């Protein structure tokens, strides 16, 4: 992915009413998120799992700061039902952070989720949403976004969760299965941001995440 294509993506996102920033590193992404969070002064913050987001260090910073309540639905020490309840509560957080499976140079965002806890707060609920994505997530159009998710993001995601019994866990290739452990259940495509500026997309000029 070259600089011109990243700029093309950013410009299309801005035309579709997403706030968009291009940064060169995870550290710059962290500083950008930190500025936005401090300016927003949220009372309740939450997040959906994302390897790219975690690489910025923002979760550790949120956990150490006592200026807000952090709804952490990914605390492995908690029973799964409690974690799921926290993820439901995240729908009413003031600020929500997560990643993106794919985004296009046409200015659309794409996800495929197992439970939907990442995509539901992005669509509605939190007053401010911050999304982070490495440049490897950028593709030309919707068809390429869906293909990227099916061939790259989903099989690699299942590979990092031991114990899932799906065909792609064994083969690394999507079989469009009907397994009980299937993680590809809910698809979301976001074409425009409403209201304008509610969502900030931070494009990191590095290959990050899945």
Task: Describe what is shown at a glance.
With 210 residues, the chain is α/β, with parallel strands linked by helices.
Write up this protein.
- The chain is built from eight helices and ten strands.
- The protein has 210 residues and is of the alpha/beta class.
- The protein has one domain (3-141, 184-204): NagB/RpiA/CoA transferase-like (Rossmann fold).
- The strands form two sheets. Strands 1-10-7-4-2-3 form a six-stranded parallel β-sheet, sandwiched between helices. It has a four-stranded mixed β-sheet with strand order 8-5-6-9, sandwiched between helices.
- Strand 5 (102-104) and strand 6 form a beta hairpin.
- It is globular and about 45 Å long.
- The mean pLDDT is 95.
Characterize the biggest β-sheet. Answer: 6 strands, parallel
Radius of gyration over all CA atoms, rounded: 16 Å
What name does the CATH topology carry? Rossmann fold
Which word captures the global form?
A: globular
**Can you tell me the number of structural domains?**
1
Proportion of helical residues: 25-40%
- Would you count the extended β strands for me? 10
In the CATH classification, which architecture applies? 3-Layer(aba) Sandwich
